[in-house]
Amino acid sequence: MGTVTLLPFSIFSVQLHQSGTPVSITVLIALLVCLIPTTIGGLLSAIGVAGMSRMMQANVIANSGRAVEAAGDVDVLSLDKTGTITLGNRQATQFIPAKGVTEQQLADAAQLASFADETPEGRSIVVLAKQRFNLRQREMATLHATFVPFTAQTRMSGVDLGIDGRTIRKGAANATAQ
Predict the structure, then answer these.
(1) What three-state secondary structure class fits 169?
(2) Which end of the chain, N or C, is more open, meaning fewer C-beta atoms within 10 Å of its C-beta?
(3) CA–CA separation, 152 vs 156, rounded Å?
């Protein structure tokens, strides 16, 4: 903005004093190129202050500049009962089977359905089954298994067992019911 105003001021000054020549466009472009890096540095702190101001208006306290920067991309913020932001890092801690199913049968099926689930939840199911029931190093070739990886679109993961025709799915209730 400062370089844009220099040309009219230069022309006015030359006309007022009736001597000299106005600043050329080449000089103004060179000045602009030299000022751009310093302007960006000056704007960053102003942007940070504006971001903190907006967060304070929403009664949110940020501990770092990175938090303020990340908050610019947030549309919805879910907080737990203490008002802190909780990581979506769920971990399996126990297998609770339905009637007629043993805990080991459930762990076996859940582990098979979780092998292609790379989320922390899926990996924790595989680890829990290993720890509780020593389910390790399966021979996938003998099961003729085809894995269905977890995706946000399908909201489920699973396995198709060619050896006995079983289909095992794990995920959102309405996604696995189809």
Answers:
(1) strand
(2) N
(3) 8
The torsion region of residue 95 among left (phi > 0), alpha (psi -120 to 50) and beta comes to: beta
- What residue type is 30 in one-letter code? A
140-169 pLDDT, tens per residue?
667 788 888 888 888 888 888 877 888 888
For residue 56, what are the CA distances in angstroms to 33, 47, 77? Answer: 36, 14, 15
pLDDT at 39: 78
Please identify which residue in the block is written with the tokens 């699973």: 158
Per-residue pLDDT, 1: 67
Q: Answer yes or no: 164 catalytic.
A: no
DSSP 156: E
Q: Residue 148 forms beta bridges with which residues? A: 158
Q: Answer whether 57's CB lies under 8 Å from 65's CB.
A: no
Of residues 77 and 106, more confidence is placed in 106
Alpha-carbon torsion, ordered 100, 105, 106, 108, to 10 deg: -170
Contact in structure between 156 and 176 (CB atoms under 8 Å):
yes
Strands (E), 17-96: none
Chain-centre distance of CA 24, in angstroms?
48
Catalytic residue among 73, 75, 80, 164: 80
SS3 170: strand
Q: What CA–CA distance (Å, rounded) separates 176 from 178?
A: 6
